[in-house]
Amino acid sequence: MQDLSLHILDLAENSARAGATLLTIELSEHTGQNRLRLQMTDNGAGMGRETLAKAADPFFTTKPGKTMGLGLPLLKEAALQAGGFFSLRGEAGRGLAVTGEFQLDHLDRPPLGDLAETIAVFRLSYPEIRLVLYRLRGEKSYSFDSGPPISGGPGKQDRFAEVLKAREWIRQQEEQLMGG
Amino acid sequence: MKSLAELAAAREKYKPTIAMRHDNANAAKIVVGMGTCGIAAGARPVYMKFVELVNEKQLSDVIVVMSGCAGKCPLEPIVEVALPGTEKVTYVRVTPEMAEKIVEGHIIGGKPVAEYAEATAK
Fold first, then answer.
1. Fewest CB atoms within 10 A around its CB: which of A108, A117, A121, A130?
2. What value of ipTM does the predicted structure carry?
3. pTM recorded for the entire structure
4. Is some CB atom of chain B closer than 8 A to the CB atom of A13?
């Protein structure tokens, strides 16, 4: 994965597949402590203890007919390589929290990438899932809440304009966060 | 089908198709492979390109959705296009530029872009 926004999209799809109706993404750059923290929490099917222990193993998957699953292992690798850590918390039937922490100024820390695009793509494909984004950088922050699920089914073209507008809004917020 | 969980998974998997059937049987469907492999290979900008084009050209009755890994990871980004009442065409190693030609030629023009299709692409 080239950047964190792609990791986020990949793991958000896991939440969707786990039947989540709410997904919270927290992405904080604590400039004072030189840490970057990504936490994704959902209310999906979660994982039992045994699955939890194996989920970050690339050769483990719960999908029938598959032999590997690379989403979580890739984030784990990226975090460990950049002086951070990775953790999975959850219970069967009670959602999952994925955390990746990075040393903010580490050479191997992946760039953030296009967060707005990730949110837009996910919103279009999974309009039934409420998405909340908390974003923090130093002293500045903003949040995005998609609001309650919208009807109309996934991928419908009548919603494209609206989602593209949300993408623009998040891009502006990111610019403000990065500036100054 | 071995268990309830698999049944639930199958239901989840086909939900977009079922919803579409109820909504609109005359919609053209664009399915972009967005598993871990697809995303790593650059599927996200391809997906957004399709959305932007459909929005820009005000095409009605086009659905853009994502799907998981199809087990053909080296060919990602993979895009399936199905016009109503026709066989789906699978495009491989799709880029945003190719998306433009696929929308022009296949979605609007009604003719699959043979040079990008899995069956004929190099």
1. A108
2. 0.87
3. 0.86
4. yes
